[in-house]
Amino acid sequence: MASVNFAPPAPHDLVWLDDPASALEGAALPAWVSLPALHDTPVVVRRDGRRPGEIPVGLRGRSRAERFGTWIAPSAMRKLVTPMELAAQRAWRLRPDLAALPAIRALEAIAGRLGAAGIRWGVTGSAGFSLACAQNVLHADSDLDLVVTADQPLAAGHLELLGELQRNAPVRVDIQIATPYGGFSLLERLRSGGRVLLKTDHGPCLCDDPWQPSPCKS
């Protein structure tokens, strides 16, 4: 097994398995899962705190219907790539085969503005997955999924910029805000003016302030 020590992975991080068959032993894998393919393609870290000490991950196939959630041991990780690393490396510029796709064109158009504003952001979803490995799951109608890490409430200027980019991008942009307590949809926050559904390791909860979510409302 891998002996590399990694920082605890966060939701949306991409993880390559050292030995997929061993890492997923005992999981009731659906028929579309290819263990040999998992040597070259990552699993995606998700939110689920039901197994302390294990990492909740999701396996994805080529269609939206092909999704499977399970857990792995930390020792099963061979490599880890974060959404922020994909953004910092401008990973889409290394993939000319994807350059014509609308989601990738949108990334190129907005990356500079996000960086100039000092926003901590990364690429997730189909775009992040496709940029991180050779398996392309993007198509012409794919959304662009982004995550913004915010340990403190976002400044008004950052909210304004993110909202503008979300409204005016040439494709549908889904921006998730990651707080120390969980993640929520920027669009929902802008529409409601406050209350959001916060996705936590222990399930979703309604809260008025996602940076001070207690008590949560079911």
UniProtKB/TrEMBL annotation:
Signal peptide: none annotated. GO terms for molecular function: nucleotidyltransferase activity. It comes from the Bacteria. InterPro entries: Holo-ACP_synthase, MdcG_C, MdcG_N. Keywords: Nucleotidyltransferase, Transferase. Residues 11-83 form the Phosphoribosyl-dephospho-CoA transferase MdcG N-terminal domain. Pfam families: MdcG, MdcG_N. Residues 98-210 form the Phosphoribosyl-dephospho-CoA transferase MdcG C-terminal domain. This is Malonate decarboxylase holo-ACP synthase. It comes from Cupriavidus oxalaticus.
